[in-house]
Amino acid sequence: MDNFGQNRQQIFGANVVENTGSHAISKNFIANVFMWMFLALGISAAVAFYFSFNEELLIQYLVKPESGLNMLGWMIMFAPIGFVMLMSFGFARLSAPAMTALFLLYAAINGISFSFILLAFTASSVVGCFLSAAAMFGTMAVMGYTTDKDLTGFGRILMMGVIGVLIAMVINFFLHSNTMDYIISIIGVMVFTGLTAYDVQKLKRIGAGMEYEGTAAANVKKTSILGVLTLYLDFINIFLFLLRLFGGRRD
To answer: How many angstroms separate the CA atoms of 18 and 177, rounded?
Structure first.
């Protein structure tokens, strides 16, 4: 048994232990996570397409033609960060239905934000980058689920990479360097592609240690929602960084 099984760790606010005899439970847990992730992506895509094909909604509620985003528009753009923080830090206090509702609302609001992307980039490049992101995500998810190698150390390095990418993006916000933006996007794709494998393996281990009876049922549901959020963010970031690299902008 590796160090993960020897030491109790708190992941996503839930205490889990490795249980090598819980393969069926782990598979059910992972399947549930991916089902909710696909649902969330579907909601985001549907909302994004709806707003992109009804530009009057954007103009009426979110955008001032003469000055860009209005107050509600800026709230929509930054709301996803608030939702992520609320779900992450409110794990112990929020109920499972509340966590689920917050996540679905988060996916819908993200869809509104993504509608601006659909308006800025050509449909062919959006579809191409989405399919590429799906292929990369799926490949790494399978690798993370099937590999016997412990990816914990690899995950820590990648998390430092996420921090580095965020710092570089803030710096480049003021520098406006196209070269730096290109480098950040390449690193971003690599980091979040690697994180996909790490996160899937972590969720597999979490699922193996879950108890589905008694009072633990609510924590199982809440933990699965945070797992969904993690994989959703991995996929979305791969897609957005690919779009920054290869997306063709509308004239």
So the answer is: 46
For residues 112 and 47, is the Cβ–Cβ distance under 8 A? yes
Question: What's phi and psi for 5, nearest 5 deg?
Answer: -80, -25
Beta partners for 249? 121
Query: Distances from the Cα of 73 to the Cαs of 84, 102, 104, 224, in angstroms?
Result: 18, 19, 19, 30
Q: What's the one-letter identity of residue 108? A: A
Measure the CA–CA gap between 224 and 14, rounded to whole angstroms: 10
Q: How far apart are CA 119 and CA 51, in angstroms?
A: 10
String of DSSP letters for 51-67: HHT-HHHIIIIIEETTT
The pLDDT tens digits for 123-162 are 899 999 999 999 999 999 999 999 989 999 999 999 999 9
Residue 176, SS3 per DSSP: coil
Say how far apart CA 107 and CA 144 lie, in whole Å: 24
Which pLDDT does position 17 carry in this prediction?
41
